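Quick one before lunch.
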Amino acid sequence: MGSPETEPLLRMRGIVKQFPGVRALDGVDLDVRPGEVHCLLGQNGAGKSTLIKVLAGAHQPDEGEIVFAGEPVRLAGPDAAMRAGIATIYQELDLVDGLSVAENIFLGHERSTLGFTRRGDAEKAARELLGRLGHPEIPPRREVGRLPAAGKQVVSMARALSHEARLLVMDEPSAALAHDEVGNLFRIIRELTAAGVAIVYISHRLAEIREIGDRVTVLKDGRAVAVGLPARTTSTDEIVSLMTGRDVEYVFPERPAPGPGDDAPEVLRVEDLTLPGSFADVSLSVRAGEIVGLAGLVGSGRSEILETIYGARRPARGRVLVDGRPVRPGDTRAAVRHGMGMAPEERKSQALLPNETVAGNVTVAGLSRYASFGWLDRRREVADVRRQIEALDIRPPDPARPVVTLSGGNQQKVVLARWLLGSAGLRLLILDEPTRGVDVGARAELYAVIRELAGRGIGVLLVSSEVPEVLGLADRVLVVREGRIVHTGAAGALDEAAVLNMIMEGSAL
Ligand SMILES: Nc1ncnc2c1ncn2[C@@H]1O[C@H](COP(=O)(O)OP(=O)(O)OP(=O)(O)O)[C@@H](O)[C@H]1O
Ligand SMILES: [Mg+2]
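Model of the adenosine-5'-triphosphate complex:
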């Protein structure tokens, strides 16, 4: 841990970054000491990613100065930052899907052309790094595009480590990771900081900040509203009110009483669904108005179960019925016709239309509703989109803005807004990690919207890595382990420790 007397490794002063119409950074100061984990907190759109892109040489600041290891530096590009000793793991992983794991790790690396004369050497070095990260099973030759989200995250970490950086910047590294994987990440962080490496760590999970952080800097609307607070002793209330400028109650909406009774009709029925290599003999049901949560580790089969129900994967065996009618397997269009909607885990690659505006992304599911006599009713479309923007607090609240210019968390909200808006014919909403990357303030709003949809009789089936979220939001919880449902119970009758035990029993920690 960095002690107060040590000279900072990094000193940023008065950093300003202006985008068209947005002052993303408005004079930010940041000091990072060698060997410390310095956490950056702030709501979606506060400027966290922009600040670290300045550090990574990906954005040029309009004003301000950066001193690194005692020297003023100009980080003219990503190469300059890496040479200076700053490595970055981005929020949107910038891996090349078509290249192998080893090629990605050493991409843009001087050693990839000079040091490694043979591909085998690069693969050996890659294997060493992956082993150090606790993932010796990832094959260096595998195409990155074929790895699951958590695997990609590990490759991205390996690439950052390969530079032997003095400052490692991580933008929401845990967002794609489940509980046990986060433990592994923290172990690596502790090894690095013990060796004097400084870490800048961004996360929306306050519990993590307490566990791994030394100091905290809070950004709000492009300004640092608190610099270098102690991570362990600053209260959650204080941090949240610094972030939001108001007191936010981190609460789940009340479950309706009486809840969806046993007599409520089944919206979804799944019988003996089996996808070899992922999960087997999964049977479950969701009633009208019920929220059912799946809890399980990454790799337990939980996302594959959702994707198979939605028709994105073809099961070897089993049936899916909506309102009692069988849905053609392996056909997402059939799923949509039966009234299913899904917000997938990797929203960026699977759901976002990067060349579209916010409005274009929100209305894509319900386009036909705005077409009358061949004309698109733009006015009604914009009015509906505005309502969703308000409900989910999407910032900036501008339907015409290109979606790629929104912050990561706001992009998540856009994809969710699509299904909320397209809810007219919706019977079952499937949500894979609905709050990933969403800040604490907006989470409560999102929970309320999900509960409201259920209140309209829609069935909700969701996966979350955060057990308290599953327990707080769902009516019923199914625990998935190694491709099987090992427990089903009312959320109110379970606690976090019990669920974690069931999730992890028998798995290596
Ligand atoms: N390339 C860009 N062009 C225009 N505006 C941008 C661009 N990148 C970011 N912005 C804007 O700058 C502001 C800060 O965004 P940033 O991505 O830094 O937020 P963040 O704190 O990382 O949020 P999140 O928690 O959602 O990831 C936002 O208003 C965003 O819309
Ligand atoms: Mg961000």
